[in-house]
């Protein structure tokens, strides 16, 4: 996908194994090591590049990666005096290829934008860059982050399976230790689903809490910048830089005595055995840790959420893919062309009813979720399905995309084939920091006791 | 502002006065003339460029304009075989400088983006270009279309007065016959206010009915692409190309027998004598034409709309100007820096309450507006104020921006100093085509009888 890993320049300047294996570190760990002077950004970048070189033939997570440029950036970062270094100094970030980067192409996995290279940074990328992050490259996506057809990327835990989508490359790269953190986007389930399939953490923050400027638009009222990591601490790092702030500090003081809700959701019929077992086990683990877990059945007015989401989604796609349709109809997937010509026959009235009904449900879910430390719910139907053609079902994620709530995927469980399964934690809107705090405790529990162990290849 | 009018190439190839004065035509008239073979696109462009050259020293509507490139585009359009010409063949369009154009800089009137030139087309520009429009240049704006401080642009009807903002250049260019149509944006009153001040028509369509991709973001939930013209027919042309469609064809069959509402709005205390007289006169004219006009007092739950709008606006600015603040705080206006550091102390709770309260009002205004051919309301407090430092008060427009309804500014009235005053017509969401149909009849009446006459200099 346009990456040029064969032209990699430079070598690992140290033969110390801790540095050669630095690709295994979380961003927080790597940053600490760099801060202590135990590793340069260049050494860290070299470690990641070697990992990528070793694994790219199988995982194919990259739409664009220029190793020479990565090293050049790393050297520039190493030259910054210590007192001038940003809060993300040396953090290496992969960026989904629907997010604009002024120094790399942005191609949206669309032939219309092949090799397109607008010199513009998305708002999020500008913030990360200014904070001292090193942008590793662009990761694969389904077409415009809007179709269900996977790119060539495979699941790092089983290359015969999908890594999910639409943030396929970001989920796979973080799952495969090719990047410690990555940016994705979510309109339906494009951040949380790949997180579950690849066995990593992900945060879909409150809608519109981080600027979406410079993200390709599918549906304005849903699209959200998402982020992947292998630890909650890394997500907290990013939340700091993006100025994600709750009104009040979280009163969560650990699992013991905390009250959770477990919610099968109106999409429960789609849950396979892997997710059903994971949810049961999660409840048992939480209770074992001293938490209360209540079963939550959402009021019936939430029942239509999946349909409301789809109606608004298709109606917005009609608007936002109009230009691509006009410019290169023959290069647009029929699925998206159908949006533009309104093959689904969605009336304005239906569109507005969906838009208004979802709006009315948002304060209600805030009230409900506010009664708990978090709501625990499925992230996906089951482990990653076989094949890379389809990126899987997003119904469990779409609910929360529609409701604008923050969601964290917590890995830790596994399915019948030993593939990772994650679960979602949900909080009211703008309780992102609280949710991360809860997620840290829950993540430690699930990772320790859930049954799935990351087995780095 | 970076325009280079002195380097203009080419000359008017005809000495026929009708072509020399082609700049006076509406886009529809110019297109018809071109279609008949009575004028080339190049001749038309030359006429506009001469007009601009004559007037630019006073009006200063342009942030960027390259006459050589305009002529080059015009010649390319003239070479397209007749059967391959697009629906906007030869329509010349000015583009507000917060809207990305791949072949021109986009500078947002921000020193952070001075001479910035990302090679990317906004969705709307791509659609216009593909339809055969000629992009004339970039028009001035307040900083990021988000401050109240005017650029150097003056009102074409009195250079001691503001053309309004934030779409200052687009409003002034169309008012001054420098462009037949122009794109603007509206978050508060940025499209409708300049339309009133410059004596032109403008459509702020239903929120999210035209893709906002490639427009600088101030507030996602309000920002809307707007458009200026000197005739409703021209706005209809654009509505066609942007695929603006209502569910049902309008049943409006002329003013006689039609039922209008006149609504002073909760902001009436801000209305000056010019607007009060205009509204009275408008009602008299409509009744004289056989229409019924009922006084509409919005239910009290609408009273807080201006405050709700401002709360959500500032809260969104906090998010969307974060990158600019990080990259170049010292180059950001204090007004916008205050958004980012939340000087207004807006809590997440207040932000969500504003967001949800506005959402709840939208279906209600649809129901109310649906009972009338249109709601008639003030566009602005009065004629354009003196001075160009402040772009004026947007409160009358912000109401409808918050409610997502389409609005058309209808010119035709004048204030105490002979400056134009327009009035707003409002319809339910996604009744844009109906609103344009009503606006055509109302516009003809107001332009004929309202008292203000366009006096081309």
TrEMBL record, chains A, B:
Gene3D superfamilies: Amidase signature (AS) domain (3.90.1300.10). This is Amidase signature domain-containing protein. Residues 46-436 form the Amidase domain. One of its GO terms (molecular function) is catalytic activity. Residues 150-163 have a biased composition (Polar residues). It holds the Pfam family Amidase. Coiled coil: none annotated. Residues 148-172 are annotated as: Disordered. InterPro entries: Amidase (IPR000120), Amidase_dom (IPR023631), AS_sf (IPR036928).
């Amino acid at each position: 996908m346009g990456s040029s890993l064969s032209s990699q320049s430079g070598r690992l300047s140290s033969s110390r194994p801790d540095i050669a294996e630095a690709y295994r570190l979380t961003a927080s760990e790597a940053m600490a090591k760099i801060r202590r002077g135990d590793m340069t950004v260049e050494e860290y970048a070299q470690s990641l590049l070697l990992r990528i070189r070793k694994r790219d033939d199988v995982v194919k997570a990259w739409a664009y990666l220029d190793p020479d440029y990565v090293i050049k950036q790393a050297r520039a970062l190493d030259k910054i005096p210590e007192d001038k270094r940003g809060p993300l100094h040396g953090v290496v970030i992969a960026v989904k290829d629907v997010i604009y980067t002024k120094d790399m192409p942005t191609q949206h996995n669309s032939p219309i934008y092949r090799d397109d290279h607008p010199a513009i940074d998305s708002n999020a990328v500008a913030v990360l860059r200014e904070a001292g992050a090193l942008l590793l490259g662009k990761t694969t996506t389904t077409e415009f982050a809007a179709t269900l057809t996977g790119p060539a990327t495979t699941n790092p835990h089983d290359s015969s399976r999908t890594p999910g989508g639409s943030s396929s490359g970001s989920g796979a790269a973080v799952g495969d230790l090719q990047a410690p953190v990555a940016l994705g986007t979510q309109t339906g389930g494009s951040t949380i689903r790949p997180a579950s399939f690849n066995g990593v953490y992900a945060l879909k923050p409150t809608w519109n809490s981080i600027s979406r400027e410079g993200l390709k638009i599918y549906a304005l009222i849903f699209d959200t910048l998402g982020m992947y990591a292998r630890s909650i601490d890394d997500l907290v790092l990013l939340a700091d830089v993006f100025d994600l702030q709750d009104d009040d500090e979280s009163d969560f003081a650990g699992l013991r005595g905390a009250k959770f809700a477990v919610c099968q959701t109106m999409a429960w019929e789609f849950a396979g055995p892997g997710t059903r077992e994971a949810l049961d086990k999660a409840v048992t683990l939480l209770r074992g840790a001293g938490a209360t877990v209540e079963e939550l059945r959402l009021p019936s007015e939430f029942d239509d959420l999946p349909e409301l989401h789809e109606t608004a989604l298709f109606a917005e796609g009609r608007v936002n893919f109009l230009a691509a349709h006009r410019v290169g109809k023959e290069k647009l997937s029929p699925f998206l062309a159908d949006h533009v010509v309104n093959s689904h026959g969605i009336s304005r009235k239906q569109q507005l009813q969906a838009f208004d009904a979802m709006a009315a449900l948002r304060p209600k879910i805030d009230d409900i979720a506010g009664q708990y430390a978090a709501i625990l719910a499925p992230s996906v139907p089951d482990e990653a399905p076989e094949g890379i053609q389809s990126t899987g079902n997003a119904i469990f994620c779409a609910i929360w995309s529609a409701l604008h709530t923050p969601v964290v995927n917590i890995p830790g469980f596994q399915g019948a084939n030993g593939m990772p399964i994650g679960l979602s934690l949900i909080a009211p809107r703008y309780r992102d920091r609280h949710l991360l705090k809860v997620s840290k405790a829950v993540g430690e529990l699930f990772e320790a006791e859930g049954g799935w162990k990351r087995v780095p290849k």
